[in-house]
Specification:
The chain has no helices and 17 strands. By secondary structure, it is mostly beta strands. The strands form 4 sheets. Strands 1-2-3-4-5-6-9-10-13-14-17 form an 11-stranded antiparallel beta sheet, with no helix packed on it. Strands 7-8 form a two-stranded antiparallel ribbon. The chain has a two-stranded antiparallel ribbon with strand order 11-12.
């Protein structure tokens, strides 16, 4: 196949601390990956997409920080998705779109303290999708795509105790997600905490002790109406980084 795609963008530096940007783009992909088409691929059309994005980025000199706002819309056609009634069968979505807003913030209000945060609010929908379920053709157009959360939030803080020691902690929130095209079953929302202690032994050498899922929250990574795959419980990792 020989697709023609493109991207056009514009950046305007409105002031020393504010930048505005915008872009539009198109894309084409094989339905199953970058290098090959699936078996029996003559049944499938290529995945085609288009996107626009606009946003602002600014500096916060008083806090030694930055902030950003991005608005976007992505539309793709001919995506593949598993059939919820028969997981071994693949269905092709006529059209799916996502639009949303992303907010980001980073700052260093104190010489030893750094803060990072980002929030994504998403509106994802099937633009055109009908599939056979229980012997009946059901139109899922307008429903939320399976596995798509409507909000994501990350917060992270780090405190540099001295030249050798740093302590950090963060929260990650993911909104609930539907697990079938009919949006009659959902994976619940969850908020996970983690913390870490890092020892900078010498330049290029460090050890980091991290506690994941600090509150031992039980939550699903993925699943369907019959079963869920649960995430790992609270666990500790020790990571060494050495450059030479």
């Amino acid at each position: 196949y020989h697709p023609v795609t493109g991207r056009l963008g514009l950046v305007w530096k409105a002031s020393d601390t504010l930048t505005l940007y915008g872009q539009v783009a198109t894309a084409t992909d094989p339905v199953s990956g970058a290098l090959s088409l699936p078996g029996g691929s003559t049944r499938y059309d290529l995945t085609r997409g288009r996107q626009w994005e606009a946003g602002l980025k600014g500096d916060l000199p008083a806090l030694q920080g930055q902030w950003g706002i991005a608005l976007y819309r992505i539309e793709k056609r001919n995506l593949l998705t598993p059939n919820p009634e028969r997981p071994t069968e693949t269905l092709q979505v006529g059209r799916q779109n996502s639009s949303g807003i992303e907010l980001s913030f980073s700052a260093r209000p104190l010489p030893a303290l750094t803060l990072d945060a980002n929030l994504a609010l998403l509106r994802a929908r099937y633009g055109q999708f009908a599939a056979t379920s229980g012997g009946r053709l059901i139109d899922y157009s307008g429903n939320i795509p399976s596995g798509a959360p409507q909000r994501l939030l990350n917060l992270w803080a780090a405190w540099q105790i001295n030249e050798q020691w740093q302590i950090s902690a963060g929260l990650r929130h993911q909104g609930r997600r539907p697990i079938n095209p009919a949006t009659t079953a959902w994976l619940p929302a969850h908020t996970i905490a983690q913390a870490a202690l890092t020892w900078q032994i010498a330049p290029g050498r460090s050890l980091s002790l991290a506690v994941h899922n600090l509150t031992n929250r039980r939550y699903p990574l993925s699943g369907n109406s019959a079963k869920w795959l649960l995430a790992e419980p609270r666990h500790i990792t020790l990571t060494g980084r050495f450059s030479f």
